[in-house]
Amino acid sequence: MERKWWHDKVFYQIYPKSFYDSNGDGIGDLQGIIQKLDYLKDLGVDVLWLSPIYQSPLADQGYDISDYYAIDPRFGTMEDMDELIAEAKKRGMYLLMDLVVNHCSDEHPWFEAAKKDPDGPYGDFFYLADKKDGRPSNWRSCFGGSVWDPLPGTDKLYLHIFHRKQPDLNWENPRVRREIYKNINWWLEKGLGGFRIDAIINIKKPLPFCDYEPDRSDGLCSVSEMLKHAEGIGEFLGEMKRETFAKYDAFTVGEVFNIKEDEMRDFIGPDGYFSSMFDFNETIFGESPNGWYDMKKITGEDYKNCCFEAQERAEGIGFLSNIIENHDEPRGVSRYLPEGEHSPRAKKMLGGLNFLLKGLPFIYQGQEIGMENTVFSSIDVVDDISTLDQYQVALDAGLSPEEALKAVSAYSRDNARTPVQWDASPQAGFTSGTPWLSVNSNYREINVAAQEQDETSVLSFYKKLIALRKHPDYRDTFVYGRLIPCHREQKHLMAYYRKDAQNTLLVIGNYQNRPQEVTLENAPGTILLNNCERLAADGKTLFLEPYQFLVMTI
Ligand code: GLC
């Protein structure tokens, strides 16, 4: 396999609004990120992905862009951005921006122009339809309601797969594609390492528009239904790669849900459209067409199976990007560990099992200190549009307000968006002002400053984990070695080998709050990492403590 510069890197996602506020306005900013670069370097991360910081009305927290060439003043200036790129480079780090091109903001000049003259050239930048003919399709927007809304001041409707303030760009129009490529190249010229590519699977719509079988009493159907019928996205993605990323050897990771069975090679194979794509197999586990209130809770066994299934699918094809959480998901430790079992030891086990899977390891801000879901005192403290929609869906389904709040709290995107807990001072040291979203009340117990002083903290464990993955004796095994699941039938145990010609490494976690015995195929060799103080073993038999996690040669 041809080696690429990004194969052995460790990635870290920054959600700038909640990362670190340097000027006291309650909103994280670029200067805040610059101030924390040494912290990130010390942690061992190489590549930073920034969620959007472009000019935006922030209807969907920056995933609604009104100027692709400008930084939103709440985050800083273009000079700050240039400084961040330069400062990252000085430290040998790379920067990825978020590429949000399925849609723009309804405040983008293109959309303004389309409203003024829907039959003019900018009308064709969007999907418009004549109001008098009714809605061209019965698809439900990802944030609720129909994807079709009236185009203000006209006799037309426009399409938005996401919020009504996020009109979809018409990728069938070559002018739109040219504008997008021009912008990507403009940013790559500035010295970016590449992009995380937002919601990209949605750019191809099955045309002409039509209805599909409704899946709720609202008569609408999920967008995932229309995606099953969309053919030919490869032409757009191949063209985008040729016109942009390939020229710069840029790294790209796609946010790709709903891929078709046999398409993985096209997406992330050696000549794939992208360098990598996220593994969302665990994320989507238990989803219900009815909404969040009806999600099935994932168990440790399910988690193990989801990870291994995804690994099997990608084997011999390419690199998945592995996460336990991101800005759209609840905190991984709250989701994938049983309720009430969020000890530092259990958090380390989950982090370790995920981090050493084959693929690219991504850490989401705060994960490295074991940040947990927050508690929403009422729906009024929720900011996220998706949670607000799902709350209404739950109410409509007959849940009481208390039940609806409880149900959506477990999956709310705001869980991951509470400010990073830097220290035990007011507002967790995130801001000297009032944070845009309340800090999690557990910040006095869980924060960076305390964990930096503590050799046994979750943070110290993540540093060791990263160092192990980069250790010259093992790096190639972790990056290129095969992943072979083992003891798969043994309940509450997740274990796998990472194996190449040099090493066989065993990664093993006792996924429960009780001790467990396991008899290995070979006696353990050197213990490379242990989240407990000791290891009890007798020959090939290990006596694992609750949530014990180990990496060893074998
Ligand atoms: C992606 C983003 C999410 C956003 C959506 C629409 O899923 O990760 O935050 O709301 O796209 O842009």
From TrEMBL:
Keywords: Glycosidase, Hydrolase. Gene3D superfamilies: Glycosidases (3.20.20.80), Golgi alpha-mannosidase II (2.60.40.1180), Oligo-1,6-glucosidase, Domain 2 (3.90.400.10). InterPro entries: GH, GH13_cat_dom, Glyco_hydro_b, O16G_dom_2, SusG-like_C. GO terms for molecular function: alpha-amylase activity. GO terms for biological process: oligosaccharide catabolic process. Signal peptide: none annotated. It comes from the Bacteria. Residues 13-417 form the Glycosyl hydrolase family 13 catalytic domain. Pfam families: Alpha-amylase, SusG_C. Belongs to the glycosyl hydrolase 13 family. This is Alpha-glucosidase. It comes from Candidatus Fusicatenibacter intestinigallinarum.
